[in-house]
Design a protein that fits this description.
CATH topology of one domain: Rossmann fold
CATH architecture of one domain: 3-Layer(aba) Sandwich
CATH class of one domain: Alpha Beta
Strand order of the largest sheet: 2-1-3-11-10-9-8-6-7-5-4
Structural class: alpha/beta
CATH superfamily of one domain: Alpha/Beta hydrolase fold, catalytic domain
Number of strands: 11
Helix content: 10-25%
Distance between the termini: 32 Å
Number of helices: 7
Shape: globular
Largest sheet: 11 strands, mixed
Radius of gyration: 18 Å
Length: 301
């Protein structure tokens, strides 16, 4: 089988067709899959559940930590968010779909935020920013390098991942709360089928109540407005048959990243709708692992 690669660079373009997947293309069209690996989290994993990173309206904000036996020192913060609902699950159940990252040696933090319907998109953005600060503050406890943090999520989780990557701040050195003194900057972003522009869709919404907030605030939580030259490398993966979050969102995000000079890759999975299943999911997972391996490698690796 062959994979069609379209490489796009600022200032020049070239289209290449080849029979292997080893070359790193900036935009790849998966017309067929040469190889799909299975992931099982086969190595021993230590689980630290329900770590409290903050409180909101008397409720704890939590994340779970999954540390593989052969951890490589880098961390991936996975955004537990679909439609900005952030539902609790036992940590052991989550581990089943983290196998590709754990097998690759990444310590994984599954970040839960204040959930819809009670909390809105700006609340979720604030929560995950605090989570990054908390992870950085406690990096030594979890055996990770605070200079090697990646973020990852799909749909609403992809939106939150992009907000973390593109709209970070160094923290407030004068804050009384030690968490708030920490930076929320991350070093690599992987976003699946993310909504990147919320302007025009904010308002009453029975299906996605997190969008029911002041439209004047929509720009402040739309990643499309925040690309800048110092942003971390970003991987976008989207299906070209996605009707819930049309691929135009990722196409526009790619253009904004290109214009700002941000290193990025865009993978289009042909025939895929919203959410990846089967071979599509495994292909996306492998691309995610490869991207984090490249951009979260230890110095000298």
């Amino acid at each position: 089988m062959s994979i069609v690669l379209q490489r796009r660079f600022v200032g020049r373009r070239s289209n290449i067709r080849q029979n292997c997947s080893g070359a790193a293309g900036k935009r790849l069209l998966f017309a067929a899959l040469a190889f799909v690996a299975g992931f099982s989290a086969s190595a021993e994993v230590s689980v630290t559940p329900d770590v409290v990173y903050g409180h909101k309206d008397g409720m704890a904000l939590i994340y779970d930590v999954f540390t593989p036996a052969e951890a490589n020192g880098a961390a991936v913060l996975y955004m537990v968010s679909g439609g900005w609902f952030s539902r609790w699950q036992p940590a052991e159940r989550r581990m089943a779909w983290l196998g590709h990252l754990l097998d690759a040696g990444f310590t994984v933090f599954t970040i839960q935020h204040g959930s819809a319907p009670r909390f809105k998109v700006p609340d979720a953005v604030a929560d995950v920013r605090r989570a990054v600060r908390h992870v950085r503050l406690h990096a030594e406890r979890f055996g990770i390098d605070p200079a090697r943090l990646g973020v990852h999520g799909g749909s609403a989780g992809g939106h939150l991942s992009l907000m973390l990557g593109l709209a970070s701040d160094p923290g407030d050195g004068e804050a009384e709360d030690p968490v708030l003194r920490e930076s929320n900057r991350v070093h690599a972003v992987v976003a699946y089928f993310p909504p990147v522009d919320l302007e025009g869709i904010v308002g009453p919404n029975e299906r996605f109540p997190a969008l029911e907030f002041d439209p004047a605030d929509a720009e402040s939580v739309s990643p499309i407005h925040f690309a800048s030259a110092d942003d971390p490398p970003t991987l976008l993966i989207h299906g070209d048959q996605d009707e819930l979050v049309p691929i135009l969102h990722s196409e526009r995000m790619e253009s904004a990243l290109d214009e700002a000079g941000v290193a990025n890759e865009f993978i289009v999975i042909e025939g895929a709708a919203h959410g990846f299943r089967g071979e599509d999911g495994r292909a996306a997972a492998q691309a995610t692992v490869d991207f984090f391996r490249q951009h979260l490698a230890a110095p000298g690796d």
